[in-house]
């Protein structure tokens, strides 16, 4: 059974064959390219959180009609960020202008090709993302992508429909 009460969110903003990624300044995944997101505020829903976090991290005011709930990403090791998060796909039009690279307090934002993000040989992306990014982008099904780590090393990722 998947816990639906995770307090963190993550979004991938897709424009054509690119995704807006953040090279993070701090943990978790400091120095790695990742989606944008963060912690829910008290009494805030996951969708309200992702809308707020996207604006705070990118200054993009998203339309919730362009936000798609893609399930959760969970993992086996506990740290200060809990054991999972809600994951979303946000689709913006191909003509959407957002100039990058852009330096923010969270890190550096830049558009990256999906093929680059999903390449298992890419050591610059958070190590679990290549395992699930294509499902997030291409599948209509919501999944729990369960990531098994040994220390900081990803060992395997399994997925289950939710």
TrEMBL record:
Pfam families documented for this protein: NUDIX
Cofactors required: Mg(2+)
InterPro entries: NUDIX_hydrolase-like_dom_sf (IPR015797), NUDIX_hydrolase_dom (IPR000086)
UniProt record similarity statement: Belongs to the Nudix hydrolase family.
Annotated ranges, domain Nudix hydrolase: 4-138
Protein name (record): 8-oxo-dGTP diphosphatase
Enzyme Commission code: 3.6.1.55
One GO CC term on file: cytoplasm
Annotated gene: mutX_2
Domain of life: Bacteria
Keywords noted in UniProt: Hydrolase, Magnesium, Metal-binding
GO molecular function: 8-oxo-7,8-dihydrodeoxyguanosine triphosphate pyrophosphatase activity; metal ion binding
UniProt keyword annotation of Magnesium present: yes
Keyword Iron attached: no
Enzyme class: hydrolase
């Amino acid at each position: 059974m998947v816990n639906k009460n995770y307090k963190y969110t993550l979004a991938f903003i897709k424009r054509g064959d690119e995704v807006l990624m953040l090279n993070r300044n701090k943990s978790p995944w400091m120095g790695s390219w990742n989606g944008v997101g963060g912690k829910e505020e008290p009494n805030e829903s996951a969708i309200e959180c992702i809308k707020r976090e996207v604006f705070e991290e990118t200054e993009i005011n998203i339309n919730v009609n362009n936000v798609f709930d893609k399930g959760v990403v969970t993992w086996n090791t506990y740290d200060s960020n809990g054991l999972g998060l809600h994951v979303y796909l946000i689709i913006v039009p191909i003509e959407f202008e957002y100039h990058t690279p852009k330096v923010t307090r969270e890190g550096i934002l830049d558009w990256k090709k999906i093929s680059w993000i999903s390449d298992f040989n890419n050591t610059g992306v958070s190590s679990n993302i290549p395992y699930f990014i294509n499902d997030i982008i291409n599948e209509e099904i919501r999944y729990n992508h369960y990531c098994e780590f040994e220390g900081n090393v990803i060992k395997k990722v399994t997925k289950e429909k939710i």
